[in-house]
């Protein structure tokens, strides 16, 4: 993982409760990121600092709704 352990544990609980609807991926892999983005209904991007975030542009390209924080940049 690359984030706080408590958040990863919360995602793991959601995976158990909703095995066919929730999935968490704690490591970054480019091909997997494209597949997840293309297959998602929405993407949560709670960045605190993002001077030029491309992930929301990728999400829009695939028709996935990006839900972002207003960080400026």
Please give a handful of descriptors for the protein shown.
73 residues, alpha+beta, 3 helices
What is the strand and helix layout of this fold?
Blueprint: H1 5-17, H2 30-39, E1 42-45, H3 55-61, E2 65-68
Parallel strand pairs: 1-2
Describe the protein:
It is a single chain. With 73 residues, the protein is α+β, with helices and mostly antiparallel strands. The chain has one domain (5-68). It has 3 helices and 2 strands. The protein has helices at residues 5-17, 30-39, 55-61, and strands spanning 42-45, 65-68. It has a two-stranded parallel ribbon.
The 3D shape can be described as globular
> Can you count the beta strands?
2
The largest sheet is: 2 strands, parallel
Element-level helix/strand string:
HHEHE
User: Radius of gyration, rounded?
Assistant: 13 Å
Strand arrangement, major sheet: 1-2
Provide a concise account of the structure shown.
With 73 residues, the chain is of the alpha+beta class. It has helices spanning 5-17, 30-39, 55-61; strands spanning 42-45, 65-68.
């Amino acid at each position: 993982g690359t984030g706080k352990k408590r958040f990863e544990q919360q995602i793991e609980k959601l995976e158990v409760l909703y095995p066919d609807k929730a999935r968490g991926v704690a490591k970054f892999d480019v091909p997997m990121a494209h597949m997840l983005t293309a297959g998602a209904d929405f993407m949560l991007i709670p960045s605190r600092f993002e001077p030029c975030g491309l992930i929301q542009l990728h999400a829009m390209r695939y028709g996935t709704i990006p839900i972002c924080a207003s960080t400026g940049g």
